[in-house]
Design goal:
alpha/beta; 12% strand; 4-stranded parallel beta sheet; 206 residues; 2 domains
Length: 206
């Protein structure tokens, strides 16, 4: 008895930072494959910002072009790519290779014809605009924090790096009986830096 071969699917997951995890994407992708009867033949997991080169994505695209699988499944379009132009171009490249892009969050990608390409462009544009708004809100929030910090006199950003001269001066003043506040005023550094200087072994700044 002839049986219809199962479609081969590759799962692609991506997170933008090391603080995030793929684990919230993979279970739903596995469920998508089971629901449609796809055979999972490859899994591609990437931890990188799209502002940088994506070697895992490039390897997946190369495998797609040589016919290693029939579909690529992603959790959402913004995990596939982060720009409208990039998403559309990469989806069309998959189409030319005979590979279909499917998504857990965008089931309309399973449809065919020109309407799919139109919807792909529209939804990618929406995702891109949302990312831009998030970036703008983040920058605005940081600007407010810096402004408050400048008014309060508190330093903003990463603590200053300790050097041997700062450590030596802090230790000398502490030996003279100066308080942490007095040392901070004398050296023009935050009290937290004074505490770090006094707790730093001399060898650590050589």
């Amino acid at each position: 008895m002839n049986t219809v071969p199962r479609l081969r699917v590759a799962l692609y997951v991506r997170v933008s930072t090391g603080a995030q995890t793929h684990e919230n994407q993979l279970p739903e992708l596995e469920q998508l494959a089971r629901t449609h009867g796809y055979a999972v033949v490859a899994r591609f997991a990437e931890e990188a910002s799209t502002a940088k080169r994506r070697p895992v994505f490039e390897r997946m695209m190369a495998d797609a072009k040589r016919g290693a699988f029939d579909l690529v499944a992603v959790w959402s379009l913004d995990r596939f790519g982060r720009s409208m132009a990039g998403n559309v171009a990469d989806a069309l490249a998959l189409n030319r290779a005979g590979v279909q892009l499917v998504s857990v969050r965008e089931p309309w990608l399973d449809t065919g014809g020109p309407i799919r390409d139109l919807l792909l462009a529209i939804f990618s544009w929406v995702a891109e605009q949302e990312r831009r708004r998030l970036s703008e809100r983040t920058k605005a929030g940081l600007a407010r924090v810096r402004q408050r910090g400048s008014r309060s006199g508190r330093p903003i950003g990463r603590p200053p790096r300790l050097d041997a001269a700062t450590v030596a001066a802090a230790v000398r003043l502490a030996a003279e009986g100066r308080s942490g506040r007095q040392i901070a005023v004398a050296l023009k550094i935050p009290r937290s830096t004074v505490r770090r200087a006094l707790a730093t072994p001399p060898a650590a700044v050589l």
